[in-house]
Amino acid sequence: MSITMTDGATLTAALSASAAELEQALDQLLPPNEGAEARLFDSMRYSAMGGGKRMRAFLVLEGAKQFGVSRTSALRVAAAIEMIHAYSLVHDDLPAMDNDDLRRGKPTNHKAFDEATAILAGDALQCHAFTVLAEEETHPDPAVRIELVRAISRAAGPRGMCGGQMLDMMAEQATAPLDEAAIGRLQLLKTGKLIEVSAEAGAILGKAAPQQRAALCNYGRDVGAAFQIADDVLDATVSAEEAGKATGKDAGAGKATLVGLLGLERARLQSERLVAQAKSHLEGFGERADLLRALADYTIARRS
């Protein structure tokens, strides 16, 4: 499955524009050279800025557009989620976790700084993200800010990203391979929940009707699942230069993936089914959700 040339060009331009806006927001929210602890801020900025697909931020911004949310509010939430994502990558790359040396085409945080600084930078990025979400500039209604904190912390916590990482580490030591349902749950928690809440965040900001919020949430869940399968396909098929990070490590480490269980072709078919399902959740939004539809297609068409 591939996106059309028109959709592809439009989406590429929209992704670039939103990434540039996001970079400006992060620059303002993560001040450099802050006192004697400047090294910590440098480490935070090193991992949070200057790279990545910014797909989660794009989901926040496009979801917010569906409900006429102010760009400032949407950018602050997008920046907060990208900080949480960046923290997770910093910690995921540590020797105690995946022990990676390359991320987004440059040395991982603990290689550029040191392990202790990387741990602190990850901790600080997570804490600062929730500071941003709790501030009045993010939304004038405290109930909305509380709901954002609740939804995003749940997606990042023990029943979300952290829980998924734990399952991933346990799977490497398992005596029997995980089945499809277990792998799906692992990937839902580790990767999918943060993507899901990124799509849902715009509806929270816009005080959307429950059915509209559920539609974006379901869209995000299916896009997240397709994204992870595509990542596993890329890990098995592209070079480190193309991906901007080490590849081929999943199989070598015995990691549980749908590609390993189903094979490349069946995994690709599954990702295509998920993309079609994701787009079906957007039927009630009309043409204003076209970029979200194109993003779903891009999720499995990308090469990095």
Automatic annotation (TrEMBL):
PROSITE patterns: POLYPRENYL_SYNTHASE_1 (PS00723), POLYPRENYL_SYNTHASE_2 (PS00444). GO terms for cellular component: cytoplasm. Keywords: Isoprene biosynthesis, Magnesium, Metal-binding, Transferase. InterPro entries: Isoprenoid_synthase_dom_sf, Polyprenyl_synt, Polyprenyl_synt_CS, Prenyl_diphosphate_synthase. It comes from the Bacteria. GO terms for molecular function: metal ion binding; prenyltransferase activity. The keyword Metal-binding applies. GO terms for biological process: terpenoid biosynthetic process. Its cofactor is Mg(2+). Belongs to the FPP/GGPP synthase family. This is Polyprenyl synthetase family protein. It comes from Rhodovarius crocodyli. The lineage of its organism: Bacteria, Pseudomonadati, Pseudomonadota, Alphaproteobacteria, Acetobacterales.
